[in-house]
UniProtKB/TrEMBL annotation:
Keywords assigned: Dioxygenase, Oxidoreductase
PANTHER family: PHYTANOYL-COA DIOXYGENASE DOMAIN CONTAINING 1, PHYTANOYL-COA HYDROXYLASE
Protein known as: Ectoine hydroxylase-related dioxygenase (Phytanoyl-CoA dioxygenase family)
Stored Pfam families: PhyH
Oxidoreductase listed as a keyword: yes
Keyword field contains Oxidoreductase: yes
GO molecular function: dioxygenase activity
Superkingdom per UniProt: Bacteria
Family annotation (SUPFAM superfamilies): Clavaminate synthase-like
InterPro entries (alphabetical): Phytyl_CoA_dOase-like
Length: 289
């Protein structure tokens, strides 16, 4: 694995995303998928913090397959091509779209919910397909070039249950004709920036779609609204903005579960503060109008 080509980097910076990026073999992706299913069973059985938060944001601190992926030299080479030699894993996230699921996500950006300062050009999400992804199984869709606009306002479009399930929608008119479906073979990945507008649709497939996302950041990205933690996976951290997480030793052992619980609690509390601050700012703006 030699990392990204110049054309791929150019597309990432120009359009806010690039894919497909070759990463794992189809056989390796299938093996990871089997481990993910086992992880799901264990998390469900254990319950507690792990049972509630097994998909996000710290599976790499407790599950061996996730730890191996965030340290895989092919993964890190791609991330380094984008961000440089000093890399933190800020979060890991499992995305499932069940076969035939009507669920979908509204057009949105990730950045408003992460509470970062000085993050432009210094963070990237790697979305690794553990199954094939296409329009039929509700794959992600990108709105090209939208990362150039910075963080945009978001709100719920509608007040019913369906609107709540779809999530907040960015206040930007996405041209559906130019939207791009993220079509990947198992083992390939896509990259996008946290201000790139994206969505996902319902599934009409007979098979599940499963993807694993890794959020890489440079150490200089500062967390707002409270302390945070991250895992140093390459280079050095000269900023001290994050409590550095320990690398997993034995999966699911007491030390791993303690590290997972602590990091999850820190992240949950900070992001709740970010959301409260956003709601307060939105309410004040509404009163001013």
């Amino acid at each position: 694995m030699t990392g990204l080509h110049r054309e791929e980097l150019s597309r990432l910076h120009g359009e806010g995303f690039c894919f497909p990026v070759e990463l794992l073999s189809r056989e390796e992706a299938a093996e990871v998928l089997r481990d993910v299913r086992r992880y799901e069973e264990i998390a469900t059985r254990v319950g507690g913090v792990l049972g509630h938060h097994w998909t996000y944001p710290k599976s790499h601190l407790v599950a061996g397959w996730a730890d191996r992926l965030v340290h895989d030299s092919r993964v890190l080479t791609v991330a380094e091509n984008v961000l440089g030699p000093d890399l933190l894993v800020w979060a890991t996230n499992l995305f499932f779209r069940k076969a035939g699921s009507p669920g979908e996500l509204a057009w949105h950006q990730d950045a408003p919910y992460f509470g970062w300062e000085d993050f432009h050009g210094r963070t990237v999400r790697m979305w690794i397909a553990l199954t094939d992804t296409d329009r039929d199984n509700g794959t992600m869709r990108y709105a090209p070039g939208t990362h150039h606009g910075g963080i945009m306002p978001h709100r719920y479009r509608g007040s019913g249950v369906s609107a709540l399930l779809r999530g907040e929608e960015v206040e930007f008119d996405v041209d559906d004709e130019t939207a791009v479906d993220v079509t990947l073979a198992a083992g390939q990945c896509s990259l996008h920036f946290p201000t790139t507008i994206h969505s996902s649709g319902p599934s009409v497939s007979l098979a599940d779609r499963v993807c694993f996302a890794i959020d890489f950041i440079q150490p200089g990205v500062r967390p707002l609204a409270g302390p945070d933690s991250a895992l140093l996976v390459r280079g050095t951290d000269g900023s001290g903005h994050y409590d550095l997480e320990p690398r997993l030793g034995e999966e699911f052992d007491p030390a791993a579960l303690r590290a997972f619980s602590r990091a999850t609690k820190i992240r949950h509390e900070r992001l709740m503060n970010v959301m409260r601050a956003g709601r307060t700012a939105g309410a004040a703006a509404g009163q001013a109008v």
